[in-house]
Write the structure tokens for this entry.
Amino acid sequence: MTSALLLLPTQEELVERLQHTASYSGQLLLLCGQKGSGKSTLSAALASELDDYNSALVLCPQHAASAEIRRKILVQLISSPIFDDEIPLMDTIMRIQSTLTKPLHIIIDDAHLLPKTLWAECILLSKIQCAGSNVSVTMAMDSSYLSKLMAELSNDMRELLLPITIEPLPIAERDGLYQSLLMRSGSTSFIARDIIHRQLENQSGTPFEVVELLQLALTEPKKNNSGRGIKIKLAWLLILLTVLVVMGYLFKNEPRFNRIESTQPQKQLTALQQQQRDSAEVFIVSYGKILISPIMSAIKKNQAYQPLMILDNKPTTDEKVSYIQEVDSVALNQTKSNADAIRPRLKPKPVSLETSRGGKAASKPISTKESDNNKLPNKGYTLQLASVIDKKSLESIVTKIGNKEAVYIAKHKQRYVLLFGLYLSPQQAQNQAQRLQTEHGISAPWMRKWADLSEYRIELESR
């Protein structure tokens, strides 16, 4: 084994078996194991052994979208960044099939979190050939997911899958792994070796269990101080009870005249509180007048009518209702006028139509209906040059091309797609693609039908 990963003997044998089976079986491999059995380690070791393959190793996160997984796979298999992660993997691989010089091997870890759409694509992908060999696909997944997966597939689809189960580690390898990790830690175990050996025998045989046992053995046991803690808590409880008893006795024997006199300051305090509350009400009324004053000034400027006067006395219910209705009417009219002032005036923009072999484009305007709805043409062909998430990434390609009149920036879901030209025939589109490659260094433009881009929307911004 040339892998830089430290593997146990049984793990090395399993990686060699996976590599050999993927080369000759023509089936999609399912690496099944329980939590902590080493699926991720074996997947990484297998990827490091594929020197003769164009390989991709992908960890599938929970709730991942299909486009995200496709993008992670394709960026490792294709040197050119121009691809569409919204179309199935088979279509993209078949489109670039002639440019690939090595067989493909795709490894997906935590495949039980993979969307069902990607499962179907990977099964079909394993039947496609590249560089004279079938595309190899290996998926690492939890053993509990295998029965659920098989129940959802037909008999023909089940024959395309080959489950390979990760066997438990032998007791000798468990013991050797424990001792090796203990020596590397440089610490001393607090549990006797014979006890460790018995616990290793009772385990199910996963490397994760061995690591957990080592962490337990290196943790110093806590001393039992529960008896002392209980004594301290009882002492504090006794002191608290003593204080309560003494305070109750003093209050019971307090002279009567002292308790009567103590009520007088309370009456004075209540009168002071009432005076403060009255002052606060006066302040709130004055402050309310200050807040309403700018609103009344705005009403005078925008409406030709005499507003209600704010009186020193409290307004009646009819006055309150009238004032609220007038303020609401002014606010509504002001909002409508502001909306009319800032409403954008969108104008249709011209698109380019190639009319000659020399590549000169004639300007042909899009209909007003299509421009208002941000829709692309539905006839002819165009060239897709890039598909990105950050729109600013397209600036360098547009600058390199120079002919901005023939450039379209369309949006599809969360991605921006750079399109070039509008062509009446596939031959015109292919001729322009060759010129872009030779004159501007654009890598492999993708010819697409406008009719297939019905869900795309043109960005109506100045070029």
